[in-house]
Structures are given as structure tokens and as C-alpha cells.
């Protein structure tokens, strides 16, 4: 999908693809038990997941457009899931409010994601121009 939007500026491409991917995750959050132990109104609001996924798409779009390959994104997404769900979450001690801060549903991911998205947004000038990207997408 990102290749279809590659004629647009990188910021718009990241936002459009981020919204689509966030909405794609909603059924998992709402109906498949992909939530945290935070209260249902917080975990199933989809707000934190939506914001986190949109922010993550700045890095994903940059990797995809810079490398012209899907594999860096596939590896980044798999690594994220592995380290967060199997590594960081089990290491986090329950203090009563930790579910609002840590894991994929916490505010901490939004804060760190904002910093990471900002870094990739600043690096957008290192990407090929939209006319070059659309030529690569056709090849």
C-alpha cells in the first residue's frame, strides 16, 4: 500500500498508511483479546494503539521508502513484537498504574513513539523524491 502512496510527500504517506494500519489493528484489540490488564475502557479504546501505530509508521515508511524493500519493516515489526511482548512486558513489575504507562497500550509508548517519529520525520529529506519513488514502484 505504501508504494501506491509514494507519489505523495513522505509525511502524508506515513500518516495515511498509519491510519489504515491502525484501523486494521482495531478488531484484534476489540474482539481478539489483544489487550492489557488495564481497565477495559482504557485498553479497548483503541486510542493508544491508534496513536502508537501512526507514530510507528513514520519509521516504517522511512525504512520502506529508503530501502525500496519490505524486509526491513517486516524485521522491525517482528522484533518489536518479540521484545515488547516476550521481553519488556514480563520484566515490568505491577505497581497498579503500570498498565497505563508500559506495554503496547501505555502512554510510555506514545511518548517514546513521538520521539522516534520525530527523528524519522526529520530524516525525510534523505528519502528519494516522490518522482523517483514512483519510478521505483513501477520497476
Total number of beta strands: 0
What's the pLDDT, averaged over the residues? 81
Quaternary class: single chain
**Please, how many helices?**
7
Radius of gyration: 16 Å
Indicate the low-confidence ranges by residue numbers.
Answer: none
Structural domain count:
1
H and E string? HHHHHHH
Shape: elongated
N- and C-termini, Cα separation: 15 Å
Class based on secondary structure composition and strand pairing: mainly alpha
Q: Which band does the percent of strand residues land in?
A: under 5%
Major beta sheet summary? none
Helical residue percent band: 55-70%
Task: Detail the topology: elements first, then pairings.
Blueprint: H1 10-31, H2 40-43, H3 47-67, H4 71-91, H5 98-101, H6 107-122, H7 130-138
Helix pairs in contact: 1-3, 3-4, 3-6
Amino acid at each position: 500500500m505504501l508504494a501506491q502512496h509514494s507519489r505523495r510527500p513522505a509525511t502524508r504517506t506515513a500518516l495515511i498508511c498509519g491510519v489504515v494500519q491502525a484501523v486494521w489493528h482495531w478488531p484484534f484489540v476489540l474482539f481478539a483479546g489483544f489487550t492489557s490488564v488495564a481497565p477495559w475502557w482504557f485498553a479497548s479504546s483503541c486510542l493508544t494503539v491508534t496513536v502508537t501505530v501512526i507514530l510507528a509508521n513514520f519509521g516504517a515508511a522511512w525504512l520502506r521508502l529508503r530501502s525500496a524493500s519490505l524486509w526491513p519493516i517486516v524485521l522491525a515489526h517482528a522484533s518489536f513484537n518479540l521484545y515488547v511482548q516476550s521481553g519488556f512486558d514480563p520484566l515490568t513489575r505491577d505497581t497498579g498504574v503500570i498498565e497505563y504507562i508500559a506495554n503496547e497500550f501505555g502512554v510510555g509508548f506514545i511518548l517514546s513513539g513521538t520521539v522516534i517519529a520525530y527523528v524519522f520525520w526529520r530524516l525525510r529529506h534523505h528519502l528519494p523524491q516522490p518522482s523517483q519513488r514512483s519510478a521505483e514502484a513501477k520497476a
